[in-house]
Design brief:
The complex is a heterodimer of chains A (about 210) and B (about 240).
Chain A: E1 7-10, H1 18-26, E2 32-34, H2 37-42, E3 45-48, H3 54-64, H4 66-76, E4 80-83, H5 85-88, E5 91-94, E6 100-101, E7 106-112, E8 121-129, E9 143-149, E10 151-155, E11 161-167, E12 169-177, E13 180-183, H6 191-207
Parallel strand pairs in A: 1-2, 1-3, 3-4, 4-13, 5-7
Antiparallel strand pairs in A: 5-6, 7-10, 8-9, 8-11, 11-12, 12-13
Chain B: E1 2-4, E2 7-10, E3 18-21, H1 23-32, E4 38-42, H2 50-63, E5 68-71, H3 77-86, E6 90-93, H4 95-99, H5 102-111, E7 116-124, E8 131-135, E9 140-145, H6 146-156, E10 160-165, H7 177-186, E11 191-194, H8 200-207, E12 214-216, H9 219-222, H10 228-237
Parallel strand pairs in B: 1-4, 4-5, 5-6, 6-7, 7-10, 10-11, 11-12
Antiparallel strand pairs in B: 1-2, 2-3, 7-8, 8-9
Helix pairs in contact in B: 1-2
The chains are: A alpha/beta (about 210), B alpha/beta (about 240).
């Protein structure tokens, strides 16, 4: 792999990190699982995984002081990858279990999926790529990825939407904004193309390090 | 895949189980065959077998990157935590949920409903008199209506239902379409149809008329009657959206 690098996966105590860690290892990278602010700020790439409910996640992040760390990471321009709930907490607020403020890094609100289909949206669904981006290298348009969520983020600025999926309505499935890449789906649960996405991401993210 | 003592087994009755291989290898095989999800059921479900199962889960999670569910002998939140921490995406509870319905909500609260699958074994009571739920691996009737229990399980927090027809299981004569349809129409979470797959048409029927969100099959794949690809191509040809 050449020079040393540090990938930090933020462990805020909720949810299952193992799949993310394993997937990153499978594509050839070593990651540190940590909630230590210094380690996270030193990292070349930061990963914010997530399973569960956005407000619980926010409470955990705030409780550990990691909300501030994430703001610093974003401000620093270092690559940040957010997965599932990780994407949702980047928004201004979520209506899950009441109204809860989130990190406010992506202006917009996280809303419940509309009635009419089974909730959670749990299963494979086609990802419609909206932009050209190295993260999609080798991944055909409309490839299936694995989703499990009951809420979805609605960004105010539609230009940050890198991919969508259809679940009755068109849902924002992926965001690319400056140094942030965020996926609503779980690449680590999406088989071969999910692993390819991680491989593309880390190659791109580490190539950009100083 | 039914698992005991760290090995996958196959057979149509409990007295005729044959070793079918290493779970990690089989999981990897089915992954390359484009299975959408895997289910591992610990059929020994004893406390001795727990460590072996956890180790299996860990090894599967290191190699296989599609969702997998683990069930069998999960009795309390600590058991759920053990499996999820080892790398399982979902845990399935059956008897424990019937005996202690609060367990569903506890699991859903701690880990999220999407992690909690309630497995229900259903058997017809009389022709046209509904279905009862069975427990202890089908050995005993729970004395409750299966459809009513399905609704209640979802109300309590189940994120998914794994519905097995005890009458149809192993017979390869088709799923219980009526059972699946009624349950699927009664709940707002995904329902997986299980038990009875023998032909490609059975799978189609379960997903269409049966309104199942997913189909689970074991024998037809373990005995290599069909490949997963064959199944998916057939379903796609009949208008069912599938991941190919």
């Amino acid at each position: 792999m050449g020079d040393g690098y540090l990938i930090a996966i933020i462990d805020y105590g909720a949810g299952n990190l193992r799949s993310v860690v394993n997937a990153i290892a499978k594509v050839g990278y070593e990651a540190n699982i940590t909630n230590n602010a210094d380690t996270i700020l030193d990292a070349d790439v930061v990963v914010l995984p997530g399973v569960g409910a956005a407000n619980d996640t926010m409470n955990s992040l705030v409780g550990l002081g990691i909300d501030n760390v994430i703001h610093k990471v974003v401000a620093s321009g270092r690559p940040l990858l957010a997965v599932c709930i990780g994407l949702q907490v980047l928004f201004s607020a979520t209506e899950e279990e009441g109204w809860h403020e989130c990190l406010g890094i992506i202006p917009g609100v996280v809303r419940r999926l509309p009635e009419g289909r089974k909730i959670p949206h749990m299963g494979w669904n086609q990802l419609e790529q909206k932009i050209e981006h190295p993260i999609f290298n080798g991944i055909p348009n409309n490839t299936n990825f694995y989703f499990v969520h009951s809420y979805h983020g609605v960004p105010e600025d539609k230009l940050v939407i890198a991919a969508t999926t259809d679940y009755g309505i068109s849902i924002c499935a992926m965001i690319v904004k400056d140094n942030i890449v965020a996926t609503q789906f779980h690449p680590e649960k999406s088989g071969e193309y999910g692993l390819k996405m991680y491989a593309n991401y880390f190659k791109m993210a580490l190539e950009s390090k100083d | 895949m039914d698992v005991t003592c760290g090995r996958v087994v196959k057979g149509t009755s409990f007295t005729q189980l044959r070793d079918a291989g290493d779970p990690v290898e089989l999981a990897g095989f089915y992954d390359t065959q484009d299975a959408d999800e895997l289910v591992f059921l610990d059929i020994t479900a004893s406390s001795d077998g727990r460590d072996t199962m956890v180790d299996m889960v860990r090894r599967v999670a290191e190699q296989v990157f599609i969702p997998f569910t683990v069930g069998g002998g999960i009795r309390e939140v600590a058991d759920m935590r053990l499996m999820l921490a080892a790398g399982a995406d979902k845990i399935a509870i059956n008897t424990a949920a019937v005996l202690n319905p609060e367990l569903i909500g506890e699991g859903a609260k701690k880990f999220g409903s999407q992690c909690v699958v309630v497995a229900i074994d259903a058997r017809r009571k009389e022709p046209n008199d509904g279905w009862e739920a069975l427990i202890y691996g089908g050995r005993r009737s729970a004395g409750i209506d299966a459809v009513g229990w399905a609704k209640r399980a979802v109300e309590l927090g189940a994120g998914e239902l794994l519905l097995t027809s005890w009458d149809a299981d192993g017979q390869q004569a088709g799923y219980d379409i009526e059972l699946n349809r009624i349950v699927s129409e009664s709940v707002s979470v995904p329902v997986i149809a299980s038990g009875g797959a023998g032909t490609l048409e059975h799978l189609y029927d379960a997903l269409s008329v049966g309104k199942a969100d997913a189909v689970l099959a074991a024998s037809i794949f373990h005995f290599k009657t069909y490949s997963i690809r064959e199944v998916k191509e057939y379903l796609q040809g009949r208008g069912i959206p599938v991941r190919l």
